[in-house]
Structures are given as C-alpha cells and as structure tokens.
Amino acid sequence: MRVLLIDDHALFRFGLQELLERRGIEVVAAVGDSSTGIERVAATRPDVVLLDMRMPGLNGLELLRRLRAAHQSMPIAMLTTSAEERDVIDSLQSGAQGYLLKDMEPDALIAALGEIVQGRTVVAPELMGVLARAVRGESKPVTVVSGGAADLTPREQEILCHLAEGQSNKTIARALGISEGTVKLHVKAILRKLDVHSRVEAAVIAVERGLCERGGSGGCGGGVGGSGDSGAGGRGSP
User: In this structure, are 82 and 29 located in the same domain?
Assistant: First the structure.
C-alpha cells in the first residue's frame, strides 16, 4: 500500500509516517501544505491519500474538491479532529472515501486504510450518529433518486433508513414486526443493489443521496450502533 500524507502539523505528520512505515506501509510523501500536496499526488499516484481537514490557505475540503475536479480518482480519506456534522457530510459528498479521526487506535487506522484501498467507504464508528442525524434531517423523498437506489423495494427503502439510523437487525425486526432472518435477507439485497459491501457504505449513500424522508425510518428512534448483530458503525456481515 502506497500512502500520501497531507497535514500541516509536522509533529503529527512525521509521527504518522513513522507508524505507517513500521507497519510495512510505503509513505510516498508526507507534506504540510495543499499546493505541495497537489504536486505530489500527480507525481506519485498513491494508492490512498490521507488528508487533514484544517489547514491554512487551501483547506482539506477545498483540496479534496480540487483533486476530484482534476480527475484524481484514487481513494482520499480525511484524517482530522473535526467531528462536525457539516464537515463529515461535505467531505463524503465531495468524494472522500473515508472520514477518520486522529485519536483512533493505530490498528483501527491500518484496518480502515485497507478497507478504503479495496474500494469501500469507511467512517469512524463514533461518527455514525452524525450520519443518523443527517438522515433524520433530510426531506428529499426516495422516489427522486436514480441509480441503484431506485431499484429498492418499498420495504428495502424502509429498512435502509432504519439501517442508516444505526440500528441492528434485531432492532429493525422488532420495529417492523418481521423476523431477524428476513431483515438480514433484505440488508443483503440492499447492499447488492447499491453495489456496496458494508452497512456503513449503505448509510453513507442514504445521507449523500437524500434517500430518507424527514423522520428517517418513519419515526424509529433506535440508538446509533446498537447492540446485537452488526450495527451501522461496523464493517461486519449484513
């Protein structure tokens, strides 16, 4: 795995570089400003870019948008201290494949990078509540969305909104009056139709595309990352 780091805090940048290299990950460049970052992305073509959100001059979100506008298609993950809802949503909508927090455990960071390089979207589990709030605040109906989401049945759309609230299969089954096994089958169908591999990615799509009406899953109020089988914060099986 070849990683490019862009972060204006030198101590953090060098420390992260050393950590990654000790784990056998090649750091092709570690730079402290957006202008140099743009140059190094073009020159090194990394497998993934780790990008700080808060930087002087061109900030991380603006840099992300500029790289996407320049057709740089490699995975880009925000690695930041910001847990602000607007930052999370704006980053995902602007083309980030990951939104990670700087206080995460090293093993979790390495695992997340592996997922991102494989083409999956990874959001720090503690930020799934942010996604759930965004879903509850959306008012755009599902029917206006084109693409794979348009193929979802009404029941699958309903379950997707419960899933985006961070609810476990057990909680969804209880809310809808169906069996947990039936919920699992629906979740598998949702992931297949949306062409994603995890509940996190499905939740991200629900937010990005406005797939749930205000009130999310019709007034369900389950907690984010519920117990039982995998909640929306995990990358486990459906």
Answer: yes
C-alpha 135/C-alpha 137 separation (Å) is 5
Q: Which of 136, 167, 191 is the last residue of a domain?
A: 136
Integer Cα distance of 53 and 78 in angstroms: 6
Q: Which domain holds residue 196?
A: 154-209
Report the CATH number at residue 20. 3.40.50.2300
Q: Which helix (H) or strand (E) holds 85?
A: helix 85-93
pLDDT in tens, the chain (238 residues): 999 999 999 999 999 999 999 999 999 999 999 999 999 999 999 999 999 998 988 999 999 999 999 989 999 999 999 988 888 888 988 889 999 999 999 999 999 999 999 988 888 888 877 776 666 654 333 333 334 566 889 899 899 988 887 788 899 999 999 999 999 999 999 988 888 777 877 887 887 777 776 444 443 333 333 333 333 344 444 6
Give me the sign of the Cα torsion angle 71, 74, 78, 79.
Answer: negative
